[in-house]
Write a structure and sequence with these properties.
The structure is a single chain. The protein is of the alpha/beta class. The chain folds into 4 domains: about 240 residues, 2-Layer Sandwich (Dna Ligase, domain 1); about 90 residues, 2-Layer Sandwich (D-amino Acid Aminotransferase, Chain A, domain 1), CATH 3.30.470.20; about 120 residues, Phosphohistidine domain (Glucose Oxidase, domain 1); about 300 residues, Phosphoenolpyruvate-binding domains (TIM Barrel, Alpha-Beta Barrel), CATH 3.20.20. It has 36 helices and 31 strands. It is an enzyme of class 2 (transferase).
Length: about 900
């Protein structure tokens, strides 16, 4: 348990909006900090106060609020009441407040909010009289009971929804606004009965009790299932806590001259400047986000309320110029008066992120370094996904709002449970809903894409999908979604659960069946098939080109490729690889060659072994010549043979069965019997920790010598052909310097023989792979015999954690992620505390012995964005990754350089 704040100290738990600023997000959360900033800018923000994240953390640790919190809240509430000229829940003229969550990082819809706190049986009449609108007062009261019942008292929200739908059906209407005051008064009575039956208590009539319970509910929602799931998905730390914002209510449900909306200073889907957002007359904010009523485009506000529209446009310009970024804004109009309820740097699609960053550079608002920091490798990876083939024959089902781009194909499912279940069985699914809500998060994560018949670009589905980089189409009104019958109807076409559908998040189009995909223009750019700056170049490609060019100029880390053949090497070179960091020679012995290695391993005598090596040598030499030619002028690190032994031996079970059946038929096969004996002799319980790597090279005479000779002869042949081969020989799985010294001596002898035979001077670096904890711990000794280290972080992670990757990822990793033991798999992002500590120590020790020691990494972590920053920090010279991850690594290496430059200047 973390130490609780000292309640006898002067620690402050509550800040008025006038006391904070946008730089206090750690303390006030994003929402509270930005409400304070807008207040400081003189924008129309309803008065209120923020309870800090420290109060939340204290509550979560102890199960109760800090002792000083209640008195601080009372003092700020009293000041708010004096400013507003009314008291919380006062029967004659009640002050009403909202209680909203607000963590440091945006978590849309994942935590709790309660509006209209202060309403009761006594004050609802006073609100009606003051507003001159009885319907508005009862509508606000039913909303409070509904939200409070669901979020604070834990009542199933569906019960309220069903009661609301029944009220509309009995009235013969389809929208909430058609219910009059009497209808809503009856609905309030129904809602209160639901609360009593489900929560075992009456809806609280004391306004301060309402507020206090709501504050605690918001604190508790930080650890709610959907919030924890969202944090795991977005890699948000669990120990931040949420702030709570208590804000005086302004009402968008006071009639046609009132309303609520969400606006963006630029299109979050494309990055284009213009008027983007949604507006809903006679509504409160939750109606827009939930998508329960279809909104109108923000541009229509100009004809509805031009004065408010003009003021909003002016405020949007002020905010974008102040934050120097796309801003996401929530606002309410109360009888012609505009109020700002929230602003934040808006979530945007990957394409929009690149476009906006370069647009802001062109406008002189940010520099190139800041533009690079506004994008990331995960976004670039999204842009490299395929898109639908525009020339393919398609059957259009309908069209909605292009909320989050991408090309998603999958089987239609109509609830989150099915989406998760089918996805875990290997099925690709499209989650189809009327509208999503926070309880759908599991299904949204599992789905390839999301499709809703209601809502716009600011709906829950759109905002969450953009944050996750998930394809999404919203507001496809022609689609009639029937979740109970698990089907969707479009005109005369019925789409049943399990039918294939294709969703285009870039155009908003929805197709029946599977639409073929083609490479993205960004991949075509990296492949050299599209040139930024050409007349027909896509604006997105031009933006990517500019940012990548800057990243390449500033990065210190070089980026190499993991490639085992000339084809992959050439592709990697087109993608910007500066050499090969890992050529796995065992991949050269697949197919027909596998039997040659099998004969080598199982050879009984020297002549048989020598014959096998003689056959392998020319094949290896040819492989290396092709590889050195493809990477001419760039380094190529060749790892000597490193397979677990069982990969080159017959399966012991199959071979045993074959021999047993032959014996039963009295059809003895001497070769099979001999082979079975040999396999039994070499069989290992844990091949990953057995006879492999340097151990195999030491046990099988001539194996590594053959490979070194093939490398040396290939390099000599390329030099003779006027090429520039830069080969590096890497010895795998070294645990002690003595192993490396023996193989190094043998290699140097072979290289000298090739030099003498060819008359060619060769400069072949000899180094090792650091993939065992002992190697990392004895790096100072090993560096005496190695010219370079390459960290094999895949095996290093396995041996540090004691994990067999192939087994544990399928068995218990899911549970570990769900329980929060892992924030992310240590095979995906390097474990900096454990594995990273060994890397850091080995770097320091190795360079202390050999100052010019070249250092790289060739595990999967070499292409992981977060890991690339770590490798920059510890001082590696290069990272190596699969060809398609090279652009991501280049971008992140640039970002790491800018980031470290900024921290150095501080």
């Amino acid at each position: 348990m973390r130490d609780l704040p000292d309640q006898t100290s002067d620690q402050k738990f509550v800040y008025a909006f006038t006391e904070g600023n946008k730089d206090l997000k750690d303390l006030l959360g994003g929402k509270g900090a930005n409400l304070a900033e807008m207040t400081n800018l003189g924008l129309p923000v309803p008065p209120g106060f923020t309870i800090t994240t420290e109060a939340c953390k204290a509550y979560l640790d102890s199960g109760d609020e800090p002792a000083a919190l209640r008195s601080e809240v009372s003092a700020h509430l009293d000041a708010l009441e004096q400013r507003m000229g009314k008291r919380l829940g006062e029967p004659g003229d009640p002050l009403l407040v909202s209680v909203r969550s607000g963590a440091k990082f945006s978590m849309p819809g994942m935590m709790d909010t309660v509006l209209n706190i202060g309403l009761s049986d006594a004050s609802v009449t006073g609100l009606a009289q003051q507003a001159g609108d009885e319907r508005f007062a009862w509508d606000s009261y039913r909303r409070l009971i509904q939200m409070f019942g669901r979020t604070v008292l834990g009542v199933d929200g569906e019960l309220f929804e069903e009661a609301l739908e029944e009220a509309k059906e009995s009235k013969g209407v389809t929208v909430d606004t058609d219910l009059d005051a009497a209808d809503l008064q009856r609905l309030v009575k129904r809602f209160k009965k639901i609360v009593k039956a489900e929560a075992g208590r009456d809806f609280p009539q004391d306004p301060r009790e309402q507020m206090d319970l709501a504050i605690k509910a918001v604190f508790a929602s930080w650890n709610g299932d959907r919030a924890r799931l969202y944090r795991r998905q977005e890699r948000i730390p669990n120990d931040l806590g949420t702030a709570v914002n208590v804000c005086s209510m302004v009402f968008g449900n006071l009639g046609p001259d009132s309303g609520t909306g969400v606006a963006f200073t630029r299109d979050p889907a494309s990055g284009q400047q213009g008027v983007y957002g949604d507006y809903l007359q006679n509504a409160q904010g939750e109606d827009v986000v939930a998508g329960i009523r279809n909104t109108v485009p923000l541009a229509e506000l100009e004809s509805i309320d031009k004065a408010s529209y003009d003021q909003l446009m002016q405020i949007m310009e002020v905010l974008e110029n102040h934050y120097l970024d796309l801003c996401d804004i929530e606002f309410t109009i109360e009888r012609g008066k505009l109020w700002m309820l929230q602003t934040r740097v808006g979530k945007r699609t990957a394409g929009a992120a690149f476009r906006i960053a370069t647009q802001l550079v062109d406008q002189g608002l940010i520099d190139e370094a800041e533009a690079l920091m506004r994008v990331n490798g995960a976004q670039l990876a999204q842009l490299m996904f395929p898109r639908f083939d525009e020339d393919a024959p398609v059957e259009l089902l309908g069209r909605g709002i292009a909320a989050s781009p991408g090309a998603a194909v999958g089987k239609a499912v109509f609830d989150s449970y099915t989406a998760v279940k089918w996805s875990r069985s290997g099925e690709k699914v499209i989650l189809i809903r009327r509208e999503t809500n926070p309880d759908d998060l599991d299904g949204m994560i599992a789905a390839e894409g999301i499709l809703t018949s209601r809502g716009g670009k600011t709906s829950h589905a759109a905002v969450v999908a953009r944050g996750m980089g998930k394809t999404c189409v919203c507001g496809a009104e022609d689609l009639e979604v029937d979740t109970k019958r698990r089907r969707m109807t479009v005109g005369g076409t019925v789409v049943e659960e399990g039918d294939l559908v294709s969703v285009d998040g870039s155009t908003g189009k929805v197709y029946l069946g599977e639409v073929p995909v083609v490479p993205s223009p960004v991949v075509e750019y990296f492949e050299g098939r599209m040139h930024a700056g050409a007349d027909d170049a896509d604006e997105l490609v031009a933006a990517v080109h500019r940012i990548m060019a800057y990243a390449d100029r500033v990065r210190r880390l070089r980026v190499r490729a993991n490639a085992d053949n000339a084809e992959d090497a050439l592709r990697a070179r087109r993608f910007g690889a500066q050499g090969i960091g890992l050529c796995r020679t065992e991949h050269m012995f697949l197919g027909e060659r596998r039997e040659m290695v099998e004969r080598l391993i199982l050879a009984d005598h020297d002549e048989e072994r020598a014959e096998a090596l003689e056959k392998l040598l020319p094949l290896q030499k040819k492989d290396f010549i092709e590889l050195f030619e493809a990477m001419d002028g760039l380094p190529v690190t060749v790892r000597l043979l490193d397979p677990p032994l069982h990969e080159f031996l017959p399966d012991i079970t199959e071979l045993s069965v074959r021999v047993a059946l032959a014996e039963a038929r009295k059809d003895h096969n001497e070769n099979d019997l001999r082979l079975l004996q040999a396999v039994h002799r070499l069989h290992e319980q844990n091949p990953m920790l057995g006879l492999r790597g340097v151990r195999l090279g030491l046990v099988i005479p001539g194996l590594f010598a053959m490979q070194v000779r093939a490398i040396a002869e290939a390099a000599a042949a390329r030099k003779d052909a006027k090429g520039d081969p830069r080969a590096e020989i890497m010895i795998p799985l070294v645990g002690t310097v003595q192993e490396l010294e023996i193989v190094r001596d043998e290699a140097e002898t072979v290289i000298a023989e090739v030099e003498a035979a060819t008359g060619t001077r060769l400069k072949l670096a000899l180094g090792t792979m650091i993939e065992l904890p002992r190697a990392a711990l004895t790096a100072a000794q090993i560096a005496e015999a190695a010219e370079f280290f390459s960290f094999g972080t895949n095996d290093l992670t396995q041996t540090v954690w004691g994990f067999s990757r192939d087994d544990v990822e399928a068995s218990f990793f899911t549970a570990y992620l769900e329980k929060g033991i892992f924030g992310v798999s240590p095979f995906e992002t390097i474990d900096q505390d454990g594995v990273g500590s060994l890397v850091r120590n080995a770097v320091a020790a190795g360079r202390a012995t050999r100052p010019g020691l070249k250092l790289g990494v060739c595990g999967e972590h070499g292409g992981d964005p977060e890991s690339v920053h770590f490798f920059h920090e510890v001082g590696l010279d290069y990272v190596s990754c699969s060809p398609f991850r090279i652009p991501v690594a280049r971008l992140e290496a640039g970002r790491a350089a800018v980031e470290s430059r900024g921290s150095d200047s501080r």
